[in-house]
Design goal:
By secondary structure, this protein is mostly helical. About 80% of the residues lie in helices and about 0% in strands. It has two domains: about 120 residues; about 130 residues. It starts with a helix and ends in an 8-residue tail after the last helix.
Length: about 270
């Protein structure tokens, strides 16, 4: 069973990596990133289809043919991936492709572990733990990346206001240029934002499927959504309106402050 979960982990992380490339392509129109993201997603699509085919033939050999809800959701996930290919190929709406795959990714991760737990309490415990590991690893990775971005935002504001007041010019020579700081800060958001979205999606899908809608109003979920909204606004303002770096840096720090408050609000949350 352990080797199966290891395979499932690998596939889920490959799926997550493909979405990072897709989001990078949406922001920077990076053809290389799109090719890598598409290649990884095709790999996941093939494996997901393979799981479905194996499940289909195993059911054919059973006395009574019956697809479970887990099977149907996995089929739905596979169809979502297929639709993302069609949208990307014929309609060129890359942002929709990203969010379609966020839904597909969440269902894929949930179903890939759920399908390995049928009728076995120990396996169910292992699979639930593995899914929690995926969620936590995505959150920690996002927080680490976005923390670097927050430090860069602070650095940007220090350099900007020092140059504006013409103070501390000598020691500022050790800092990179404002353009370098701003572009690196943006890249931290480009990688951190989709990781946060994926981690939240993995957390929300089980809540919706189990009908525990009251948890949607939990303080940590609401704060996570608020932080994502501010980061999304950051990306929009920088990419579309080309806002000045110092305004973007302050917006970044606002989003990061919400993250920190969210992290510290764990004792008031029933989510985890």
């Amino acid at each position: 069973m352990n080797w199966e979960l290891w395979i499932y982990d690998t596939v889920v992380y490959i799926y997550a990596l493909s979405l990072l490339f897709y989001f990078s392509d949406f922001i920077y129109e990076n053809r290389r990133a799109k090719q890598l993201g598409t290649g990884l997603l095709v790999f996941v699509w093939m494996l997901s289809g393979g799981f479905l085919i194996i499940r289909f033939f195993s059911e054919l050999q059973a006395p009574a043919f019956a697809f479970t809800n887990v099977d149907l959701m996995q089929l739905f996930s596979w169809i979502m991936i297929t639709l993302s290919f069609i949208i990307s190929r014929f309609y060129k709406i890359e942002l929709i492709v990203f969010f379609v795959n966020i839904i597909g990714f969440s269902l894929f991760a949930l179903n890939i572990y759920s399908s390995s737990t049928e009728g076995n309490t120990l396996d169910m415990w292992h699979a639930t733990r593995e899914l929690l590991y995926v969620h936590i690893s995505l959150v920690i990775s996002a927080y680490a990346i976005l923390t670097v971005g927050a430090l860069l935002a602070i650095m940007y504001l220090i350099v900007h206001y020092s140059l504006k007041r013409k103070k501390g010019i000598r020691w500022l020579r050790r800092f990179p240029s404002l353009e370098v700081i701003a572009s690196t800060m943006e890249r931290m958001v480009i990688f951190g934002f989709p990781l946060l979205v994926m981690s939240l999606a993995i957390a929300l899908i089980p809540i919706l499927l189990e009908g525990k809608t009251m948890l949607l109003f939990d303080v940590q979920i609401l704060m996570s959504i608020l932080a994502l909204a501010v980061y999304g606004y950051f990306i929009y303002q920088r990419a579309v309106h080309k806002k000045p770096g110092y305004e973007i840096a302050r917006l970044y720090l606002l989003a990061y402050a919400i993250q920190i408050i969210n992290m510290l609000s764990g004792e008031y949350s029933s989510f985890h």
